[in-house]
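We store chain and fold; thus.
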Amino acid sequence: MIMDEPTSGLDPVFRWKILAILSEFIQDGKRTVLFSTHISADLERVADYIVYFQKGQLKFCGSKEELLDVYVLVKGPSNLLQMSRYKDKFMGLQQSSLGFEGLMMRQSYDDHPFGNQVTVEKPSLDDILVFTQEGR
């Protein structure tokens, strides 16, 4: 089944109901649902595989877990960003008086010793979509 924005415009209760119906539909493993969406929470809940396009370019095609494992969300004090070698490694970055939050390729993070000065988390799909749209 192919669907375009199947939960767009629905309130959260009906979105969950539609996603539950779609999950039941594919549960036997004999059927597939392909749907496009801008609601990444729906993908977090039900997707096994994700195809991610940005500006007409294929950015990723694979399992949801593979996509989430490509990146890390790094949070820390703003003074770390004064060193350009760190700042240039972020895919996207938000700064405030409280510090920074940025998305990095896991491999880039592993190559740079931030030590215990930062917090590292697994990003959400929203984090990936927002920070990669900012682009570097």
Summary: The helical segments are 12-26, 40-46, 64-70, 84-87, 106-110, 125-134. The mean pLDDT is 88.
